[in-house]
Amino acid sequence: MLKIEIAPHCSLRPAAAAWFFASVCLVSFTIAGMMALRGLWPILPFAGLDMLLLGWALVMTLRRWHHSQIITVTEERVALETRNGAQREQFVFPRHWARVTLRRADTPWHPSRLTIESHGRACEVGGFLTEEERRALAGRLLRSVGRMNESPPLADTSTPLRPE
After folding, report:
1. Is 152 part of a structural domain of the chain?
2. Do residues 149 and 94 lie in contact, with contact meaning Cβ atoms separated by under 8 Å?
3. Which residue range is the domain that position 96 belongs to?
4. Same structural domain for residues 106 and 149?
5. What is the pLDDT of residues 16-66, one digit of tens each?
């Protein structure tokens, strides 16, 4: 059995995000408050909107912390479990008929797409990975899953969920 666990790189921890947000709010509202005392009161609502937008961006960034994918390859099947917080979605493909495909992007600014396909169903794998990581994962999956109608021997290995 081969088990590969992948997750996006999340260097910003929730506690660090809270400290960052609090310090930026303190500086922003201090400056806006001083300007409001000088008669430039319209600055305060715009400072509030800026901090609201920054808070929203931080929340969206921290949501990635709970996203992961687990690919399990056995002699009979290829299973992909996608976790996004409390939501879980699982796809199971027969290994003998599964196909790993790395599609090049239509334009240079878009990433490639790595999919596992079988019987008209497809599931994207590693959409959050860098291009090099996606290519390495594609090679590893091709060696493990094989092409359609192939079933190469499996090595018993696994990879960590989040690199240290």
Report:
1. yes
2. no
3. 2-8+67-158
4. yes
5. 999 999 999 999 999 999 999 999 999 999 999 999 999 999 998 888 888
